[in-house]
Specification:
Blueprint (H helix, E strand, L loop, with lengths): L4 H19 L6 H10 L3 H10 L10 E11 L2 E11 L4 E6 L7 H13 L3 E6 L6 H14 L2
Parallel strand pairs: 3-4
Antiparallel strand pairs: 1-2, 2-3
Length: 147
């Protein structure tokens, strides 16, 4: 889990480039983009996924890299890809790497759109995964507070 700072910067840059490249795919569908992201999960996403998949966390089913369509414009869906999603609780979990330090306005706008859809957003910084028990407890607490 402890990567050198340079390695972490490279991982963030590669992940950012992956997102940019998938935006440039010829007419990507939300499902195709999500499939590509599932195949190219970040190390931190893989760690959290191993702890919440197969109903391991209080019996809740989580999906990874789940498309959320919030609007259709000119017959094209406008969407986000949530890192993790629990439909039963309408909970979106977003893992935030270093890149998110530079896109706080975009993250806030995205959170507001998702909340307008009745979704709850929980943001977790990658560094927090060093204490997985605390992260899992935050998720459990969040699911418990959602009706």
């Amino acid at each position: 889990m402890r990567e050198s700072r340079r390695t972490e910067q490279l991982n963030c840059l590669l992940f950012y480039n992956l997102h940019e490249n998938t935006n440039r795919m010829s007419d990507p569908t939300p499902i195709n983009r999500a499939r590509l992201l599932r195949k190219n999960m970040t190390p931190c996403e893989k760690i959290l996924w191993a702890n919440i998949r197969k109903r391991k966390l209080d019996g809740f089913k989580f999906l990874r890299q789940h498309p959320i369509i919030y609007q259709v414009h000119n017959n094209r869906p406008l969407y986000f890809i949530a890192d993790f999603y629990c439909a039963e609780k309408k909970l979106v979990i977003e893992l935030d790497g270093k890149i998110h330090n530079f896109q706080k306005q975009e993250d806030t706008a995205r959170d507001e759109i998702m909340e307008s859809l009745g979704l709850h957003v929980l943001r977790i910084r990658n560094e927090e995964l060093e204490n997985m028990q605390n992260v899992l407890q935050r998720i459990v607490d969040c699911t418990g507070s959602i009706r």
